[in-house]
């Protein structure tokens, strides 16, 4: 009971410190908060705008307090742990609009859920040593689990981009061959395709129409993706635009290269799966087969030797 009381007291003290640090007296307003009343209405969400333009109900006080505590802890973690640039790059590769502090706040929530699960598991096992061991293990597993889930999201989106890239490259080549300008071809393909790469092309078209320029928008697309064939495709597209090379031929060559890269990736994946299939065959099926083949003979030999 003394250990449980000490843990609850430590949690209460930590919570009070977070509340004091995240309260209005200790929290300085950011530049975004100071400019928000002059540039728009940030309290109106997209769902509210679709529903008639009225803002939804204000969140409860405990939700506001929880968000404030999460922001404070996320800021601490972001200052203590390196790798903010890598996380920002992975968030862009996963297609998740968000910042590193927001991701750190999600890690804090996952760690809190893991801590609670560890505490409950330790209490169910009788408390004492189990509670002391499982509580930090659960918190660590929660934080690392959020990072693992981000890696899973990056891998899934990369696979989706790899599957869509050959088709979109062929459609772009056909549109340019038919006489359309590069921006018009990108707009037509982005409207026809509804996948991850189609959304990225829609973003490229919007950025080019807003004044950024098509070359700059394509370079930003290559910078925020984790797929090497897509980076090569964008580089070839940009070089063709800069040097005046016939774009249709370049796009057809790029589409052929993308298909070859996909074929090589498929062969590599098949080779890895073949090696992985050898593990159950060698260590499970083959010993059982040998045992069934030799066991009757061994029984017969043991009976003859008696």
Automatic annotation (TrEMBL):
The chain crosses the membrane at residues 281-304. It comes from the Bacteria. Coiled coil: none annotated. Keywords: Cell membrane, Membrane, Transmembrane, Transmembrane helix. Residues 169-293 form the Type II secretion system protein GspF domain. The keyword Cell membrane applies. InterPro entries: T2SS_GspF_dom. It is a multi-pass membrane protein. The keyword Cell membrane applies. It is found in: Cell membrane. Pfam families: T2SSF. One of its GO terms (cellular component) is plasma membrane. This is Flp pilus assembly protein TadB. It comes from Cryptosporangium arvum DSM 44712. The lineage of its organism: Bacteria, Bacillati, Actinomycetota, Actinomycetes, Cryptosporangiales.
